[in-house]
Amino acid sequence: MTADQGALQPSPDLSADESLAKNRLGVAGIVFFVVAAAAPLVGMTGAVPVAIVLGNGAAVPGTYLVAGLVLLAFSVGYSAMSHRVSNTGAFFAYVGRGLGIVPGVGSAFVSLLAYIAVQLAIFGFFGAVAAAQFDSELGIDLSWWVWTLIAWAVVLVLSVLQVDIGAKLLGVLMLIEIGSLTLLAVVVLLQGGGPDGLGFVDSFSPSKIFAGGFGGSAGIALAFAFASYIGFEATAIYAEETKDPKRNVPIATYSAVSLIAILFAITSWAVVSGVGTNDVVNQVATISSVDGTPLANPAAVLYSVADEYVGHWLSELMSWLVLSSLFAGLLAFQNSAARYFFSMGRAGVLPRALDRVNGRGAPVIGSVATSVITLAVIVLFVVTDKDPVLNLFNWFSGLAVLAIVLVEVLVSIAVIAYFRQTDVDRRPWNTLIAPIIAIVGLVGAAYLIMARFGLLAGTAAEGVDPTTQSFGLSTTGWTLVLAPFTIFIIGMVIGAIRRNDENEGAVADFVS
Fold first, then answer.
1. What is the model's pTM?
2. Angle between helices 245-275 and 163-190 (to 10 degrees)
3. What is the three-class DSSP state of 23?
């Protein structure tokens, strides 16, 4: 078997119920899924105010650009690999092709952990926001878990329909969401900002962005910035369902990363400018405070700027769009996790039943498996009376971001290894230089996420100030940080075992 034939590709004799629907998605459909996963409005109402107050203040917009540049460097090698591999396993397939079956399977388990974890995080946040929103606006008083279960059921139904149906739904939601953020940014910037002007230097000067160093405020802001990009790598997951994947997957990848970076940078710049760059930290802390506690209501910052520069109608619209943004993210990550189950089942790594698709070409068993797992965890958190935001959202979002960044490091290493072994692409920038830049940036990001995990996930040890002390995690914090490494080892063991039994042929077809 040559480097370009058979390995990691769907077998040509797959039956109809083992193949995903073909030619369902174009570039726009893929990009909508990816941007939906990034949930820009949620990031603007949640992560950005926290990054401003605890991080590098007015320089947060530039920090999002730095994170975007690192991920664009990652996208170069990622896209080069997509020309050789069109497989719904994506990371699973890429690592397997470059580094071998054992680390490939290990990375697959970590990726699956990440997608299920981030979906659980969003379920918790969705339930909390929906409960508060419907109670305050419509007088409908239901517990958070009721709204979460409603969303869970709707997501399951949509995920087993054709993938383009989900793309069309996400497209409408994303256009409205992006339009609201763009409107706010344009109005603020055209008016020349707030009391201190636009403050371009304060927001985008390297000396401001990296002020405080990686171990201080700059590191905190970068950790939150990288967290906001989770999901962009899902472009390759839809390769088998994409029209002309070798062309469209790279275009979608670059488009998605660029769109997310520009949207976060420009909108956060508008918010910082609207509030006032000179005293933005104190102003944001005051606006977001509840009963004297800063950042208790971070969404108030974006809404306040919208009220002042556009009108109350926009902040009211945004308060509902946050729910649609969260729901879009739920559907996007449900699809990602389902396709990983499908790919791993088809490769024989997990039970072969997972590679079944329905008459619409959707991975129905993978979708059901994802929903069963998330339902079990949701019920556990309800029974044990855990908070949907402080526990379900914070814990699992921190875990998901760390897991994805670690797999991205493996993918970048695999890209270098694959092209050195095969010599099928000799472009130095695409197959060596850009992946090395990505590795350096992503390893740095992984360190920052682990060092500031107590702040990101709310798992600092008792008596530890997570804004000033690195690591210092509680038992729960260390459990979450070590989980991706543990799952990776377990996955490698399973990969080694599967390679030695009757599934060897099936596994080798996809990840050797």
1. 0.87
2. 30
3. coil
Q: What ranges do the domains of the chain cover?
A: 16-406+435-511
Which residues fall within 8 angstroms of residue 409, CB to CB, at 6 or more apart?
439, 442, 443, 446
pLDDT in tens, 194-242: 999 998 999 999 999 998 777 778 888 888 888 888 877 677 677 666 7
State both tokens at 272. 């910082």
In sequence order, the β-bridge partners of residue 194 are 197
Structure tokens of 489? 């080892």
User: What are the E-state strand segments in 167-307?
Assistant: none
Q: How far apart are CA 325 and CA 322, in angstroms?
A: 5
Helical pair 312-346 and 163-190, crossing angle rounded to 10 deg: 140
Q: Please give the helix or strand (H or E) that residue 480 lies within, else none.
A: helix 475-499
Q: Give CA–CA dist 420/423, Å, rounded.
A: 6
Q: Which amino acid is at 31?
A: V
- DSSP assignment of 121-170 equals HHHHHHHHHHHHHHHHHH-----HHHHHHHHHHHHHHHHTS-HHHHHHHH
Cβ 47 vs Cβ 288: under 8 Å: no
Mean pLDDT calculated for residue range 279-285: 94
- Helix, strand, coil share of the chain (percent; to 5): 75, 0, 25
What number is the average pLDDT over the span 20-40? Answer: 70
Q: Which residues contact 26 (CB under 8 A, 6 or more apart)?
A: 242, 243, 248
Percent of the chain scoring above 90 in pLDDT: 51
Residue 303's pLDDT band (cuts 50, 70, 90): very high
Q: What is the mean pLDDT of the chain?
A: 85
DSSP 345-362: HHTTSS-GGGG---TTS-
The Cα 105–Cα 512 span in angstroms is: 10
CA distance 264 to 275: 16
Q: Is 277 in contact with 200 (CB distance < 8 Å)?
A: no
Q: So what's the architecture of 16-406+435-511 in CATH?
A: Up-down Bundle (1.20)
Comparing C-alpha atoms, which of 264, 265, 273 is closest to residue 305?
273
Distance CA 134, CA 389 (A): 17
